[in-house]
Every structure is written in structure tokens, then in C-alpha cells.
């Protein structure tokens, strides 16, 4: 099978690739650790970006950064369009966020993660020209039930019926932003409860699609890049997701149109990432419901990561102990 056949990425090499990607997110999370709670999100992000890129350079694949740290002029590493890896092996689209939740990290709050998503080359929606996306995410019970174009109260009642639980037991994750004041009020008026999050809606979306969390739905306007990365994870979880681009200015909308993006259009899960062969990996920076944060215990640094593979439909957790002397300056 030739390297340009997308399926090669996910027949056997993906098992090793997934573990190599974990090493990259572990490195980013560990390097960010000294900056937790120090109020310097740019320093934390810079340390994580540098560590992640160094590890990705050793991975045997040809990864094209579709969702990264921005355009080349603004971000010298892991910028949109950069090719990472050894140049050997399968071709892939890659979405990276060395820290999803830099503000959380700087403040010492929970739920910050380091994440990478990978899919077949050409399968990820490149929404980099439009920063915001309205999203709705839930578990497989929501397929054919939820509709992002409908009022949130109607969606809550439909989901409660599909999950066979009272409306008052439904919990909806929403970014705590002024733009969501009416949305939050509508959720509560419908009888459901909110789980307000400060940042990091990738983890919230994943938790909404899992069956061992207290979140039933994630909804609201967040980053478009995070939306596409989340879609890779939802593919592996067999969950539900829709998105609509939300440009903030006429110029931004024009840029999106020039890039071929659609507005007043509902992007289904396959529209966000068309491949059914995706890998999503995340390592906790600070403690969260998805993964535990980095911990230092004497000479060891402990990390917890999650690996989601769509082809096998598996969720794996990777716990690792690292010799601190090899990572952090004493």
C-alpha cells in the first residue's frame, strides 16, 4: 500500500503513532508545569509549544498542521501549514494545542490539557480564517435528536427523553462568557442545570460525549479550531456534534468565504472531519474531569493521558512516571 493511501495511517502504524503523540503531549504538559498559577500564560504556552514541537519532529509521519498556533508570521512554531514529523511514513492532518486553557494554567485552575488530534490528510475542515464557532456536543443518544438550529430548551427536552432521564437531571456545559448570558438563562428556564467553564471547551465537549461524566451536553460559541479538534475525539466516542461558524465582523466573514467556508450552514460531524480514522490524545496539565494534571512526587513527575482512536473505537488511559531530573531544572 502506498503512502498516499489514507487508510495506511490507521491499519497498524496508528497504534505506535498514538503512543508517540502521547509522548509529545506529555512533554508539553510537563514543561508547562512550572508556570501553573504564576499568572504568565504566554510563558506557559511558549514552554509547551517548544516541547511539543521538539517531540513531534521525531515522529515517523508527515503531519501538516491544519490547526496550530496561528499563521507563520505570528507563531514561529506549530503554525498553520507547517509540516512536522520525520517526513517518513503516513501523511496526515494534525491539530495541536500545546495548552488548551492557557488562562486556566496561569490562574492555577482545573481542566487545562495539552492535546493533539490527527486525521487522514485533507479530511479536517480548515476553519482558521474564522475564529469562533457555535457548537453542540453530546453522546450517541443525541444522534438524530439534537439540532443546533432549534431553541436550547427544545433540545434539552429532546435529549432528556432520549436519555430517559428527567430534565432537571440534565447538565449542560457552557463557557462562562457575557455572550452566553441569555443561553445560560434559557438553559435554566428549561429546568436543566449548567456547568459553567472558564476555558477549555475541548475537554467539555469530550465529557459531554462520554457516559461516565455528569455532563450531558456542551453548547455555545467557542473557538473554531477547538471545534474541529473536538470533532476528532467525538468520532472515536461515537458521539454527536454540530457546528456553525460565527464570524464577528464582515471582514472575517469575507475571509471565510474566500477560504471556501460556509455560513448559515450546519456543519455535521463529517463536515468537521470527514475521515473516520482519527486519533485524539490529551495529557492533563491541571486536574480535570477528563484527565488528572501533572504531579511531582519526590524524584518523579506523574502524568495522565487519554487516547481515543476512531478506527478501533477505543478509549485508553496512559499513566506514566517520569524522572524529574530529566525534565525540570532543579
Identify the notable features of this structure and list them briefly.
globular, 27% strand, alpha+beta, 9 helices, disordered N terminus, 8-stranded mixed sheet
Structural commentary:
The protein starts with 12 loop residues before the first helix and ends in a 7-residue tail after the last strand. Strands 1, 2, 3, 4, 11, 12, 13 and 14 form an eight-stranded mixed β-sheet that branches. A six-stranded mixed β-sheet has the order 7-6-8-5-9-10, with helices on both faces. It has nine helices and 14 strands. The protein is globular, with a radius of gyration of 19 Å. Helix 1 (13-32) runs antiparallel to helix 2 (41-56) and helix 6 (201-209) runs parallel beside helix 7 (224-237). The model is unreliable at 1-13 (pLDDT under 50). The chain is an alpha+beta fold.
Secondary structure topology:
Blueprint: H1 13-32, H2 41-56, E1 62-67, E2 83-84, E3 91-100, H3 102-107, E4 113-120, E5 132-138, H4 152-163, E6 171-175, H5 181-189, E7 193-197, H6 201-209, E8 217-223, H7 224-237, E9 240-245, H8 250-258, E10 267-268, H9 269-272, E11 278-284, E12 295-297, E13 300-309, E14 314-323
Parallel strand pairs: 1-3, 6-7, 6-8
Antiparallel strand pairs: 1-2, 3-4, 4-11, 5-8, 5-9, 9-10, 11-13, 12-13, 13-14
Helix pairs in contact: 1-2, 6-7
Amino acid at each position: 500500500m502506498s503512502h498516499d493511501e489514507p487508510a495506511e495511517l490507521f491499519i497498524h502504524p496508528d497504534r505506535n503513532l498514538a503512543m508517540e503523540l502521547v509522548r509529545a503531549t506529555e512533554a508539553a504538559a510537563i514543561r508547562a508545569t512550572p508556570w501553573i498559577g504564576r499568572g504568565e500564560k504566554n510563558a506557559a504556552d511558549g514552554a509547551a509549544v517548544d516541547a511539543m514541537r521538539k517531540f513531534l519532529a521525531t515522529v515517523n509521519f508527515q503531519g501538516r498542521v491544519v490547526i496550530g498556533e496561528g499563521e507563520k508570521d505570528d507563531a514561529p512554531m506549530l503554525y498553520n501549514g507547517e509540516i512536522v514529523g520525520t517526513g517518513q511514513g503516513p501523511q496526515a492532518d494534525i491539530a495541536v494545542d500545546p495548552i488548551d486553557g492557557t488562562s486556566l494554567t496561569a490562574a492555577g485552575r482545573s481542566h487545562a490539557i495539552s492535546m493533539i488530534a490527527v486525521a487522514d490528510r485533507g479530511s479536517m475542515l480548515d476553519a482558521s480564517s474564522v475564529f469562533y464557532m457555535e457548537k453542540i456536543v453530546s453522546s450517541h443518544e443525541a444522534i438524530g435528536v439534537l439540532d443546533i438550529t432549534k431553541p436550547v430548551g427544545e433540545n434539552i427536552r429532546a435529549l432528556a427523553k432520549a436519555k430517559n432521564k428527567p430534565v432537571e437531571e440534565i447538565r449542560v456545559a457552557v463557557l462562562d462568557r457575557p455572550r452566553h448570558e441569555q443561553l445560560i438563562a434559557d438553559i435554566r428556564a428549561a429546568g436543566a442545570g449548567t456547568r459553567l467553564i472558564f476555558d477549555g471547551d475541548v475537554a467539555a465537549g469530550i465529557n459531554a460525549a462520554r457516559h461516565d461524566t455528569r455532563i450531558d451536553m456542551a453548547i455555545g460559541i467557542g473557538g473554531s479550531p477547538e471545534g474541529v479538534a473536538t470533532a476528532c475525539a467525538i468520532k472515536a466516542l461515537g458521539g454527536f456534534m454540530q457546528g456553525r461558524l460565527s464570524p464577528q465582523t464582515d471582514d472575517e466573514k469575507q475571509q471565510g468565504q474566500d477560504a471556501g467556508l460556509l455560513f448559515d450552514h450546519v456543519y455535521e460531524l463529517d463536515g468537521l472531519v470527514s475521515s473516520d480514522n482519527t486519533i485524539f490524545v490529551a495529557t492533563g496539565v491541571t486536574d480535570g474531569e477528563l484527565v488528572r494534571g501533572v504531579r511531582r512526587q519526590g524524584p518523579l513527575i506523574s502524568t495522565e493521558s487519554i487516547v481515543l482512536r476512531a478506527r478501533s473505537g477505543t478509549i485508553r488511559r496512559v499513566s506514566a512516571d517520569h524522572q524529574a531530573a530529566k525534565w525540570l531544572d532543579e
